[in-house]
């Protein structure tokens, strides 16, 4: 039970973080959050980080449900993470981005706990 | 103007969706509530009363139930073409019997005492359709075949709207994270786009698996041609079960069903759940006994049987055994089963249900924002599509928006109140509940057509908010139960219903305040309306291109 | 105006014709298509029937989109009915050649 909850939150936070990174890779939103245009390297970095985090989110899903149902859950988390970001962004762009950064740490910690406790 | 593909799709998206927006909103909204139909039914049956009633009751006797069920059906439905019995279990202690006289006839059903076989009649329980009401709204609007077809047509419109929407909204990836609040029409378009794009995989999946679940009704051509109109033969063939047996018109009594229950339970090692008998009384009679699924096991897989055994219902000989978890059929049937499971969320437990709830509500919100956007655009700049009667048509669309969206929400939470307020002893109370739900929904339409549009929105949203927030109160006054007590005794389902209702109530307050503030800015909108009438669709294309 | 581009002279009639072509023409074409597919997909009959039926709603959606993208309502009807007849005749050929029973 506890493990399932950790997996669920890890997946949700990883999807949120990944979406935040992909968002920061775009000029319009990078500017919205950090008030400046991103360097080409930063844009690349955020894009890679974003896709990587989204891909990583499959792992806790598979731990919780096995791969076939896990992938379905993953799609759901992708949507939930993106919805949360999009409707938070205009009201608190810096907060939304910080939350994304915090999500990376928190989700990795959760995954670590799950891994250690099994 | 040149007739480009995108413009055709824009026309199709706007007008196709508009006329079905309210039906689709209802399908999405009630379907999303239906994700939690068991929890809703549990709350509506009044958990305290159910516990009190079942205390000290003997554990359900399935063999006795099968015996009295068979006696009832032999007496009351001797000429039926099909019988079915839902055996009692710990949660539902009644015996339910169903029959129909011809394959085309409607099913008739009774609820019986599982020991004496007497018609259970008006009970002390709070008889209710519970969450099933929302499920039935979702796929047939309580209108039988006509409702199923209406929903099917609406679902096809939705598929077309999704495809044409993608074509119209060409900058999907550029606008992926874009939502700009406080900018009127622009904000409505942004939120419509964000809601649909971000949940697009879910929306396609849920609509497609929904029509597929009813494919034998909607698209029977291939099966009809290849099986000479005998769909039952096709169903048996695809599941690799014995072909249905032809009527022989030779009378032969049905063997005692309790013996078959015993045999099936021995063979599979699980409790029997449902007995069905085809052609009872004929020499061709066959019975199939379906077993109860293990919840944890069902949650971890998309397909596979719960186990069932088919018998010759005259001789009692076993014709076919399907073990739990057994997967019949090849790729297509597996795909079909997975698609059904995807639609009915039979897997993955509560987390997945909540993800469905979020994505389903996003879908409902996408439809609502689309319908509202249509009028926001035209309030700013009437397009005159209907000549002299344009203003009247807009007024109708406005009223339908208010009662189709806010009014349905009002009637839905109202249904929970109705459940608590309709007397427990009233005969046919479950029918009354549904009738009153529709009456309430109709009243919202009357209200919406009498009040100015903005006032209609504010008042119906505020009423919805009140009913949502005060739900625990009415529950406490009528049954003595409430979410805190439910939480304390570990009843998360009953507590969850009220907590979710209250959270929705808060959202409705936010929405009502938002519309109220907008309506105070109305004079400016009136000034804008004085501008020259133009084409709203052109404005749309311009806005998209900007 | 937008509707004018879809329906140049008599908007109402042309729109009605096109919607009918999409709803009924599209349904006929889809049905003919899946019957035909169920004959040519080289797997067990029941599986072929189900495969074609599972695809049918995508085919129907495509047909409706095509009808509304077609330059004229007449062309839209032709695009639905001609393939329906062709596929229907081909299926009839299969039916007579193989018999109907699975």
From TrEMBL, chain A:
Record organism: Azoarcus indigens
Keywords on record: Membrane, Transmembrane, Transmembrane helix
Protein name: Uncharacterized protein DUF3325
Domain of life: Bacteria
Pfam families found in the cross-reference section: DUF3325 (PF11804)
Transmembrane segments: 6-25, 46-65, 71-89, 96-114
Entry keyword annotation includes Membrane: yes
From TrEMBL, chain B:
Keywords: Membrane, Transmembrane, Transmembrane helix
Transmembrane feature ranges: 12-36, 146-173, 194-219, 354-376, 396-418, 430-450, 457-474, 494-515
Name of the protein described by the UniProt record: Putative iron-regulated membrane protein
TrEMBL record, chain C:
Bilayer-crossing regions: 21-42, 48-69, 76-97
One Pfam family of this chain: DUF3649
UniProt entry keywords in alphabetical sequence: Membrane, Transmembrane, Transmembrane helix
Keyword flag Membrane: yes
Xref: InterPro entries: DUF3649 (IPR022109)
Name listed for the protein in its UniProt record: Uncharacterized protein DUF3649
């Amino acid at each position: 039970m506890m493990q399932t909850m950790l997996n669920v939150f890890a997946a949700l936070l990883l999807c949120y973080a990944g979406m935040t990174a992909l968002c920061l890779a775009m000029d319009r939103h990078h500017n919205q959050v950090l008030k400046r245009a991103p360097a080409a390297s930063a844009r690349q970095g955020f894009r890679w980080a974003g896709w990587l985090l989204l891909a990583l989110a499959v792992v806790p899903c598979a731990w919780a449900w096995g791969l076939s149902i896990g992938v379905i859950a993953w799609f759901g988390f992708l949507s939930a993470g993106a919805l949360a970001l999009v409707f938070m962004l205009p009201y608190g762009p810096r907060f939304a981005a910080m939350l994304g950064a915090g999500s990376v740490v928190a989700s990795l910690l959760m995954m670590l706990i799950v891994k250690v406790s099994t | 103007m040149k007739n480009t593909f995108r413009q055709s799709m824009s026309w199709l998206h706007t007008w196709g969706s508009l006329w079905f927006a309210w039906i689709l909103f209802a399908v999405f909204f009630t379907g999303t509530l239906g994700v939690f139909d068991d929890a809703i039914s549990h709350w509506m049956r009044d958990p305290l009363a159910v516990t009190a009633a079942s205390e000290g009751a003997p554990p359900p006797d399935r063999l006795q139930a099968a015996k009295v069920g068979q006696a009832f059906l032999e007496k009351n439905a001797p000429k039926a073409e099909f019988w079915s019995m839902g055996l009692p279990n710990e949660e539902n202690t009644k015996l339910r019997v169903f029959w129909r006289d011809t394959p085309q006839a409607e099913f008739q059903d009774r609820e019986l005492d599982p020991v004496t076989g007497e018609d259970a009649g008006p009970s002390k329980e709070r008889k209710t359709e519970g969450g099933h009401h929302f499920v039935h709204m979702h796929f047939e609007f309580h209108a039988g075949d006509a409702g199923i077809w209406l929903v099917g047509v609406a679902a096809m419109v939705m598929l077309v709207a999704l495809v044409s929407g993608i074509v119209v909204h060409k900058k999907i990836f550029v606008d992926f994270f874009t939502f700009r609040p406080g900018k009127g029409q622009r904000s409505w378009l942004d939120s419509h786009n964000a809601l649909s794009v971000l949940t697009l995989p879910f929306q396609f999946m849920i609509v497609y698996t929904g029509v597929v679940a009813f494919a034998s009704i909607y698209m029977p051509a291939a099966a009809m041609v290849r099986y000479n109109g005998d769909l039952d033969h096709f169903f048996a063939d695809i599941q690799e079960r014995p072909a249905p047996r032809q009527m022989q018109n030779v009378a032969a009594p049905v063997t005692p069903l309790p013996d078959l229950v015993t045999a099936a339970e021995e063979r599979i090692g699980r409790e029997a759940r449902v007995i069905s008998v085809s052609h009872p009384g004929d020499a061709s009679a066959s019975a199939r006994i379906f077993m109860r699924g293990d919840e944890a096991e069902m949650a971890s897989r998309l397909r596979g049987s719960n186990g069932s055994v088919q018998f010759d219902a005259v001789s009692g000989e076993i014709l076919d055994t399907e073990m739990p978890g057994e997967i019949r059929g090849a790729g297509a049937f597996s795909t079909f089963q997975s698609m059904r499971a995807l639609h009915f969320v039979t897997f993955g437990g509560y987390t997945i249900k909540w993800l469905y709830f979020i994505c389903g509500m996003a879908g409902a919100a996408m439809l609502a924002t689309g319908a509202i956007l249509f009028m926001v655009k035209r309030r700013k700049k009437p397009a005159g599509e209907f000549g002299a009667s344009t203003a009247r048509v807009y007024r109708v669309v406005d009223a339908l928006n208010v009662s189709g969206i806010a009014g349905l929400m009002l009637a839905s939470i109202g249904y929970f109140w109705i459940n608590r307020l309709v007397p427990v002893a009233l005969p046919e109370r479950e029918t009354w509940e549904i009738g009153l739900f529709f009456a309430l929904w109709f009243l919202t339409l009357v209200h919406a057509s009498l009040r100015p549009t903005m006032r209609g929105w504010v008042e119906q949203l505020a009423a919805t908010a009140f009913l949502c927030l005060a739900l625990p109160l009415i529950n406490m006054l009528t049954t003595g139960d409430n979410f805190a007590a439910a939480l304390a005794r570990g009843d998360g389902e009953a507590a969850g219903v009220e907590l979710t209702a209250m959270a929705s109530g808060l959202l409705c307050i936010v929405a009502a305040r938002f519309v109220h503030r907008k309506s105070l800015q109305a004079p400016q909108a009136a000034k804008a309306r004085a501008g020259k009438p133009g084409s709203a669709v052109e404005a749309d294309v311009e806005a998209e291109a900007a | 105006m937008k509707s004018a581009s879809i329906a140049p002279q008599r908007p109402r009639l042309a729109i009605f014709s096109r919607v009918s072509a999409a709803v009924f023409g599209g349904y006929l074409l889809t049905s003919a298509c899946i019957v035909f597919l169920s004959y040519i997909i080289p797997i067990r009959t029941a599986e072929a029937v189900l495969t074609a039926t599972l695809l049918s709603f995508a085919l129907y959606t495509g047909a409706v989109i095509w009808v509304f993208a077609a330059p004229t309502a007449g062309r839209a009807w032709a695009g639905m009915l001609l393939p329906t007849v062709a596929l229907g005749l081909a299926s009839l050929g299969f039916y007579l050649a193989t018999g109907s029973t699975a």
